[in-house]
Design a protein that fits this description.
11 helices, OB fold (Dihydrolipoamide Acetyltransferase, E2P), alpha/beta, PIN_dom, 5-stranded mixed β-barrel, single chain, 3 domains, hydrolase activity, 315 residues, 10 strands, Rossmann fold, magnesium, membrane, 5-stranded parallel sheet, nuclease activity
Length: 315
């Protein structure tokens, strides 16, 4: 029996050597060659199990019958595996793709949402706007600030524009990013995610925010609305600015400097420190002066608040 086992090992070595030679001779694909090797190993295993009952035989049968069974088993299993190589390759290809998609989903969930959804994806308009720098300095932002590489590319293209205004805006955006990195209050991370099928940067931002389960920071009105419709949490810097403006009620007294005429000739226009426009009735003759006014009406518009007032009678 020992002689048969030794002979079986020798046969296995010879078979593998032969198969390697065949692979080189006929240039079998690596995947197909792997299937042949698996077939040989599985065939030998099956042959060994089938041969176990015959080990109790005596004479020449105990030496040669197990060997014959092993050779037959290897031939049958290997031939069958090789004939089904297309289906086997397809099955393992689908299995690998499925496992890779699960691993990718877990990685995206871990990296994208940060476990708490605190990371913020920032778009080109919010970077150029610049107020994000002050927001970061105050410590109101937590998590990472995610900057897509395609946003950097867009900023670079704007900074290289032949138009003076666009070039100035692009360079301002790049300077803001540089300052954000220097602040080190939040971690600024450049991410490689892209969607080549999408030509519009706004569409890419929406898909990326959904993919990573993060908030989106912008000052773009249209992007804000589209993202909201798709269930994305949007941090609109303009809305934040409006929310932080001091509340002004009718009857309150303000002190402002009138700088220009209003739409009507008798009106004068001034601005609060936060940029809110104040339209003063009968203020056209006081342009250039600092006056006390009484608030009469407050209007909230998409662009912000607009205050109407009259000259304080005590002046």
């Amino acid at each position: 029996m020992l002689l048969g086992q030794i002979f079986g090992v020798i046969v296995l070595v010879l078979l593998v050597t032969y198969l390697v030679f065949i692979k080189r001779a006929i240039a079998v694909r690596s995947a197909d060659f792997a299937i042949i090797i698996v077939g040989v190993i599985l065939g030998l295993s099956i042959g060994a199990l089938i041969s176990l009952p015959f080990n109790k035989l005596e004479g020449w049968l105990v030496q040669w019958l197990p060997l014959a069974i092993n050779i037959f088993s290897v031939a049958v299993v290997t031939t069958y595996f090789y004939s089904q190589r297309a289906n086997i390759n397809k099955f393992f290809g689908q299995l690998i793709t499925f496992l890779a998609s699960i691993a990718s989903s877990r990685k995206e969930l871990a990296l994208g949402s940060g476990g708490s959804g605190e990371d913020v994806l920032i778009d080109t308009s919010a970077i150029i706007d610049g107020r994000v720098l002050e927001i970061v300095r105050t410590g109101f932002l937590s998590g990472k600030l995610l900057v897509p590489k395609f946003v950097l590319t867009e900023l670079q293209n704007i900074a290289d524009s032949p138009d003076d205004l666009r070039r100035s805006r692009g360079r301002r955006g790049l300077d803001i990013l540089h300052e954000l990195r220097r602040e080190k209050v939040v971690q600024v991370v450049v991410i490689e995610d892209d969607f080549p099928s999408e030509l519009d940067v706004d569409a890419k931002m929406v898909r990326l925010a959904k993919k990573r389960h993060v908030r989106l920071m912008t000052v773009d009105y249209n992007l804000n609305r589209v993202a909201n419709i798709q269930g994305i949490t949007v941090m609109n810097v303009n809305e934040l600015n409006n929310a932080l403006r001091p509340v002004v009620l009718p009857g309150e007294e303000l002190k402002i400097k009138l700088v220009q005429e209003g739409k009507d000739r008798h009106q004068g226009v001034g601005y609060l420190d936060d940029g809110t426009m104040v339209v003063v009735e009968n203020g056209n003759k006081l342009i250039g002066q600092e006056v006390k006014v009484m608030v009469t009406r407050v209007f909230q518009t998409v662009a912000g608040k607009m205050i109407f007032a009259t000259i304080n009678g005590n002046q």
